[in-house]
Amino acid sequence: MHRAGEEFMDGIGMAYWEIPDEYDVHLPIVAMDMEFSRPVEVGDTIQITAEPDVGTKSLGLNFTATHEDGTTAYTGFEQHVCVSTADNQSRELPDDLKTAITDATE
């Protein structure tokens, strides 16, 4: 699930690992959860979609994983908070990041 989030962010040009250098903030995970509807077994192919939820100082990513037959394997989320690299205090998400996410989901 986390890798799907990394790929989503990289795909919109906002790779997690580049954000600290570009904006002097980072996006640590403060909460995450998943709920399985069906088992995922070794060798299964699943597709994971990410739906962002942009807040003022946070980024939520809601995930849905589906099996090849279209049935839901699990749903889950990651909650990230935007914090300064200088003092680890919460900060507003950079406008460029908000715009990139909004543009990618419209």
UniProtKB/TrEMBL annotation:
Provide an example Pfam family for this protein: 4HBT_2
Q: What superkingdom does the record give? A: Archaea
Q: Which InterPro entries match?
A: HotDog_dom_sf
Stretches for region Disordered: 86-106
| Gene3D superfamilies named among the record's database cross-references | Hotdog Thioesterase
Q: Where is the composition biased (Basic and acidic residues)?
A: 89-98
Q: Which UniProt keywords apply?
A: Plasmid
Q: What is this protein called?
A: Uncharacterized protein
Q: Per the UniProt entry, what species is this protein from, by scientific name?
A: Halostagnicola larsenii XH-48
